[in-house]
Write a structure and sequence with these properties.
Oligomer: single chain
Distance between the termini: 28 Å
Number of domains: 1
Number of helices: 8
CATH class: Mainly Alpha
Radius of gyration: 18 Å
Largest sheet: none
Length: 209
């Protein structure tokens, strides 16, 4: 594929071109570096701020980067193998969501008010990182279950960060821990919803194969 074809690739609605386009591989590498790098930073920030929402969001970053790396490796594999990878992605995301819900429930019984200023600052930086990743992947959001899974992860990250910033504001306003715990739960539910969509698409493709 020539450079002009790559730059004008209408990958939305044309999953085969999205999978072959070198720009898609470059986009995945950018997303992998952004997510794994910032995920490690945010998990430290989550412990420093004592914020469950930040910890949940950091897990989302790390999971997103890991799944994107797996998706990159799977490019060029047989359709059935790619669908099996997507199924693994969906199950992983679902387990992550269940884990976050369990952690939030445990912390609800041992509530500690997080550092709202640090929580909000990290949330803003995380939003910038996630919006960047989502924009990089936006024209590759249509494709098979594997391509769709990677797009959903990046989209979820951006949505989750808006919620984290809102929670930081509510923590500062109320002086209570519940906004942080509620947002952690919302992020977990978002995990579960996307996991359901990914698993459903992957199983449909496996049946067709």
């Amino acid at each position: 594929m020539s450079a002009s074809e790559t730059s004008s690739c209408d990958c939305i609605g044309d999953p085969k071109r999205a999978e072959r386009d070198p720009a898609y591989r470059r986009a995945l590498w950018i997303v992998i570096v952004l997510n794994l790098g910032f995920g490690l930073i945010e998990i430290v920030g989550g412990f420093l701020a004592d914020s469950q929402a930040l910890k949940a969001d950091a897990l989302d970053f790390i999971g997103d980067g890991s799944i994107s790396l797996l998706g990159l490796v799977a490019l060029g594999w047989a359709p059935r193998a790619r669908s099996q990878i997507a199924l693994t992605q969906g199950i992983f995301l679902g387990l992550l969501g269940i884990g976050v819900i369990g952690s939030a429930l445990w912390r609800a019984m041992n509530a500690v008010v997080p550092d709202a200023e640090l929580m909000g600052a990290i949330g803003v930086v995380a939003l910038i990182v996630n919006v960047t990743a989502a924009l990089v992947l936006s024209r590759f959001r249509a494709g098979d279950a594997n391509v769709t899974a990677i797009w959903l992860f990046s989209r979820n990250d951006a949505i989750a960060n808006v919620a984290v910033i809102a929670a930081a504001g509510l923590v500062a306003w109320t002086g209570a821990a519940w906004p942080d715990l509620v947002v952690a739960g919302v992020i977990a539910l978002l995990f579960l919803h996307s996991a359901y969509e990914i698993v459903r698409n992957a199983r449909r493709e496996l049946r067709a194969a």
